[in-house]
Amino acid sequence: MRVLRLGTRGSRLALAQVREWIARWRDASPEAGEVEWEPMVLHPRGDRDKRTPLHLVEGSDFFTDALDEALLEGRIDVALHSAKDLPDELREGLSLAAITPLEGPREDVLVLHPRWASASSVDELPAGLRIGTSSARRREQLSHLRSDWELVDIRGTIEERLARVSSGEIDGVVMAKVALTRLALEVPHLPLPFVPHPLQGRLAAVVREGDEEVRRLCAVLDDRGRWGRVAIVGAGPGTADFLTLRAERLLREADLVLYDDLVYPELLAGRTAELVAVGRRKGKERYTVEEVCDLMIQAAYAGKKVVRLKGGDPSLYARLEEELSWLRAARIPYEVVPGISAFQAASACTEIPLTSREGASSLLISTGYPPERALIPPPDGRLSCVYYMAGEEFPRICARFLEAGWDPHTPAVVVSAAARPEQTHLSLTLEDGARWTGSLPRPALLLVGATGVSRSWWEDRPHILVTGTRAAPWRARGEVVHIPCIATVPRRDGRVQEVMEGLSSYTMLIFTSRHGVAHFVDRLLEHGDLRLLAGMRVVAIGRVTAEALKDRGLVPDLIPEEDSAEGLVSLAAKENWRDEKILIPCSSLSDPFLQEELSRQGNTVDAVPFYDTVPAPYPEALPLEVGAFDEVVFLSPSGVRVFRERFGALPPGIRIHTPGATTRRAVDDATS
């Protein structure tokens, strides 16, 4: 029998955690009968010093130092901690072997003196209460919740804290509910609307580095192997073409995307991940920073791949520091992916160099909101200045430049919605800017001191909205924004199975779209291979459909010159198709025109839905400025219908492209 010495603190709660660890380990380990755990009580500084407030404590090993030393000296084999008490960095020579799964509650509660037991919520409690807490995090949360309470630094064991409440010295104390559960304590308490420490309720086992056998024994209770990861990703300032390759890969792989309001909708349209809007603009927020962090951490604990998507670059005005602090505390694997910043896009898309050989050699970046916080430097002809969040405030910022002695004729350019179809810019001087009384769309940046111009290659190019599932053919025409309105999902019903089993009875196979090709061939390969089509004529309507067939190893026998169902019907009449048995793999929403007309000519036609056409996912919290586009492309009637339901009627003056008469009729019906 091997004996493992398990280091622990000496409180009742710590010893209850030891019993929990041993019981859970015996249930989980196949070697339970071969190992005996021997608890050894140690006393870290945090237990010996019960007077120093935690926010005054130096170092993060206040509750672990004695256990760390015992491990390094070989007096114990494993140190068991509350996971939230782990230091930011383990001492050299130590290694984290396990963090247990959460069992039991994780929330914080307010334990009250019996005289307040009738209260059903924190809001019902009076002002002036003396509430004890030791955690700096909880202290800050309490001060926001009830600024009319007196907060008292309190240290000691659970029993010592409860004694101060029952004696009336304080009116209540904040505790982790899991501590009460582990000690089976029934005391009056109220729930607190706080986000607790992410590791609250979990246990952590630390071992000596290199002690792989002990690490292996502890690993049966290590939850980290099932955790996911978090990526904080810069979305860039506008359309998807400005997204980095790494960001695109992470979005494709993501299970959950938490996105800000400044993310352009194209980046998320059609994504299969769960999309949650967590944006905050000018003080209006859907979630607090703590709530956003808790969302991504709990999702990662559940095994999900999480993307926290931020407009521009995550290191500029994006609360990166707070979110990284939470992720480090949670011990979650994470990465930070840079994005093209709004100031870079504003400069590039308005042809304004922020530095140049003969002009500016230095760059200042500052907030512009509120304007009093904007950093205004002394006059300097070798300096370019960029101000974020300056849409409504730029006249006041320009005025402050003049007050600082800058030349009134210094260029001042406001760029709104950089790298988006609705981008616009205003080239002024500081003098003109200070007098400006108009309005500009947000988000907006102010560029001062750089060479102001009144041209923009980006604004001069046509901006094209493609609503179908394929945008590549349109990219040569201008700046394409691809927001698919529809998606396809395979059907698995009995009719498809029946058709595949009787495939040899057909003489002709007609494909009307690349989706029909994809879903049919996928099912075909489940039953065999392309030889099952031997003897059939294969017809493709349109070049795109024909290319899809070639990509799957099939060369169509026939492609009508007219790229439409009507063109194929005319060709069939001209060639006198009769007595053909025709299969048309199609969508459940397909127009019956082709089936009806070919049947009328004396053929047996089965138009069989191999897939359903459904609305593509869209980030509903992000509006799309449809009026900013010069052209809109519709590739199917169902796309027209979904577009109308999602975005309303098309503004006048936009050029519309459709591939055939059926889609054109749908557009005409929608705009009439």
Automatic annotation (TrEMBL):
<dbReference type="GO" id="GO:0004851">
    <property type="term" value="F:uroporphyrin-III C-methyltransferase activity"/>
</dbReference>
<dbReference type="InterPro" id="IPR036108">
    <property type="entry name" value="4pyrrol_syn_uPrphyn_synt_sf"/>
</dbReference>
<dbReference type="InterPro" id="IPR035996">
    <property type="entry name" value="4pyrrol_Methylase_sf"/>
</dbReference>
<dbReference type="InterPro" id="IPR050161">
    <property type="entry name" value="Siro_Cobalamin_biosynth"/>
</dbReference>
<dbReference type="InterPro" id="IPR003754">
    <property type="entry name" value="4pyrrol_synth_uPrphyn_synth"/>
</dbReference>
<dbReference type="InterPro" id="IPR014777">
    <property type="entry name" value="4pyrrole_Mease_sub1"/>
</dbReference>
<protein>
    <recommendedName>
        <fullName>Hydroxymethylbilane synthase</fullName>
        <ecNumber>2.5.1.61</ecNumber>
    </recommendedName>
</protein>
<keyword id="KW-0456">Lyase</keyword>
<feature type="domain" description="Tetrapyrrole biosynthesis uroporphyrinogen III synthase">
    <location>
        <begin position="478"/>
        <end position="668"/>
    </location>
</feature>
<feature type="domain" description="Tetrapyrrole methylase">
    <location>
        <begin position="230"/>
        <end position="431"/>
    </location>
</feature>
<dbReference type="InterPro" id="IPR014776">
    <property type="entry name" value="4pyrrole_Mease_sub2"/>
</dbReference>
<feature type="domain" description="Porphobilinogen deaminase N-terminal">
    <location>
        <begin position="4"/>
        <end position="215"/>
    </location>
</feature>
<comment type="pathway">
    <text>Porphyrin-containing compound metabolism; siroheme biosynthesis; precorrin-2 from uroporphyrinogen III: step 1/1.</text>
</comment>
<comment type="similarity">
    <text>Belongs to the precorrin methyltransferase family.</text>
</comment>
<keyword id="KW-0627">Porphyrin biosynthesis</keyword>
<dbReference type="InterPro" id="IPR003043">
    <property type="entry name" value="Uropor_MeTrfase_CS"/>
</dbReference>
<comment type="function">
    <text>Tetrapolymerization of the monopyrrole PBG into the hydroxymethylbilane pre-uroporphyrinogen in several discrete steps.</text>
</comment>
<dbReference type="InterPro" id="IPR022417">
    <property type="entry name" value="Porphobilin_deaminase_N"/>
</dbReference>
<keyword id="KW-0808">Transferase</keyword>
<dbReference type="Pfam" id="PF00590">
    <property type="entry name" value="TP_methylase"/>
</dbReference>
<dbReference type="GO" id="GO:0032259">
    <property type="term" value="P:methylation"/>
</dbReference>
<dbReference type="GO" id="GO:0004852">
    <property type="term" value="F:uroporphyrinogen-III synthase activity"/>
</dbReference>
<dbReference type="InterPro" id="IPR000878">
    <property type="entry name" value="4pyrrol_Mease"/>
</dbReference>
<keyword id="KW-0949">S-adenosyl-L-methionine</keyword>
<dbReference type="Pfam" id="PF02602">
    <property type="entry name" value="HEM4"/>
</dbReference>
<dbReference type="InterPro" id="IPR006366">
    <property type="entry name" value="CobA/CysG_C"/>
</dbReference>
<comment type="pathway">
    <text>Porphyrin-containing compound metabolism; protoporphyrin-IX biosynthesis; coproporphyrinogen-III from 5-aminolevulinate: step 2/4.</text>
</comment>
<dbReference type="GO" id="GO:0004418">
    <property type="term" value="F:hydroxymethylbilane synthase activity"/>
</dbReference>
<dbReference type="Pfam" id="PF01379">
    <property type="entry name" value="Porphobil_deam"/>
</dbReference>
<dbReference type="GO" id="GO:0019354">
    <property type="term" value="P:siroheme biosynthetic process"/>
</dbReference>
<dbReference type="InterPro" id="IPR000860">
    <property type="entry name" value="HemC"/>
</dbReference>
<keyword id="KW-0489">Methyltransferase</keyword>
<dbReference type="GO" id="GO:0005737">
    <property type="term" value="C:cytoplasm"/>
</dbReference>
